Amino acid sequence: MRTAALTAIVTFVLDQVSKLAVVQGLNLIERGVIEVVPPFLVFRMAWNRGINFGLLANDADLVRWGLVVVSLAISAWVWVWVRRENPGRWAQISAGLLVGGALGNVIDRVIYGAVADFLNMSCCGVENPYAFNVADIAIFAGAAGLVLFTGGGTKGGGKDKPPSRAARRKTP
Could you say which of 15, 61, 117, 160 is catalytic? Predict the structure, then answer.
């Protein structure tokens, strides 16, 4: 549980610090675009009022607060699951990434009314029109990690966790 909490805190702080540094510190709000290493890395200001890729985006407060509630509910569910199941280390890291990223985007929705996205990456002649942030990366990695490192019939989702005392007593 400590691993999940530490990962969530670090993820949340990295997300918020990166947003403050780039969006506020580099004044991306006014500048709109900063070409860091074009086209591989460009800071491009985008306010996402919806979910991934701007889906369900509109200016209605109902959508904004609905997404806040959904994000908090999913985060709480993951947190309760981690406490109850005590999964292995990699699953806890994944849960922490998901929760920390979700809470980072929740803060944006509460303070700004939308999520501050600023990372834009393109390569090899393919131009990516979308922007994202550190929280989005963490949410994606956390969700993928939970799929990869949980389940499979063994508590803890794999071999990265020692057996319980009861299990050790049963083995000859």
Answer: 117
pTM: 0.81
pLDDT in tens, 13-49: 999 999 999 999 999 999 999 999 988 999 999 998 8
Residue 26: φ, ψ to 5°: -90, 5
Catalytic residue among 15, 59, 136, 160: 136
Q: Is 129 exposed, middle or buried (0-12, 13-18, 19+ CB in 10 A)?
A: exposed
Mean pLDDT for the chain overall = 86
The Cα–Cα gap between 164 and 170 comes to: 10
Q: Is 59 a catalytic residue?
A: no
Active site residue 136: yes
Which of 101, 115, 138 has its CA nearest to residue 51?
A: 115
Q: Are 53 and 46 in contact (CB under 8 A)?
A: no
